[in-house]
Automatic annotation (TrEMBL):
The keyword Ligase applies. This is 2'-5' RNA ligase. The lineage of its organism: Bacteria, Pseudomonadati, Bacteroidota, Flavobacteriia, Flavobacteriales. One of its GO terms (molecular function) is ligase activity. Pfam families: 2_5_RNA_ligase2.
Length: 186
């Protein structure tokens, strides 16, 4: 049976705690919102796979991770998308570095119907009504956070609680000469 998975970047524990606090403050002001209970993350991709397929995918993710090097990420701005998403954005250099990491997975993980995220951001809320988005923008105006991105996190969606949970953390190997062989995973 297929299950839903996502590959994400988790910031440091202190940033995760801060994001949780921001979500709670926002919920106090506007009520429940999409992503309220989600752990802070930067999405790389989402896909469906069977357990057997997942083993091949995890092996491929590890091979990609072996070629990647840790990067410093600076998150320095609250921002939003027209669809009601409210998030913390990386600075220009961090955006470029995160996008490079994301592209490595996008071009090498050839999973049918994979949903790719190509705009790195740390989500706070999704699908806020315009008036609630305005409140969020008024409540949160400045931020300055740093973390080292040295791994990716594989998560599985729990249909009962409607949340993703971590099933594996894969560290970067800092071995850029390692060969990645492109091919369809299934």
């Amino acid at each position: 049976m297929e299950k839903t998975y996502s590959l994400v970047i988790h910031p440091s524990e202190s940033i995760l705690a801060l994001v949780k606090s921001i979500k709670e403050q926002l919920a106090t002001e506007v009520g429940w919102f999409n992503s309220k209970n989600s752990v802070g993350h930067i999405t790389i991709c989402e896909f469906k796979a069977t357990e057997k397929q997942l083993e091949n995918i995890k092996n491929k993710i590890q091979k990609i991770c072996d070629t990647l090097s840790a990067v410093n990420v600076h998150l320095n701005e609250f921002s939003s998308f027209p669809n009601g998403a409210f998030f913390i954005a990386p600075d220009k250099d961090s955006h470029k570095n995160l996008k490079h990491i994301m592209k490595q997975f996008h071009k090498s993980l050839l999973i049918p119907n994979m949903l790719k995220s190509d705009n790195p951001h740390l989500s706070i809320a999704r699908r806020l009504k315009p008036e609630n988005l305005a409140k969020a923008n008024k409540m949160f105006t400045s931020i300055d956070l740093n973390f080292i991105c040295d791994s990716v996190v594989l998560r599985q969606f729990d249909e009962q609680i409607k949340q993703f949970f971590v099933i594996d953390t894969l560290k970067f190997g800092d071995n850029p000469k390692s060969n990645i062989i492109q091919g369809t995973l299934f």
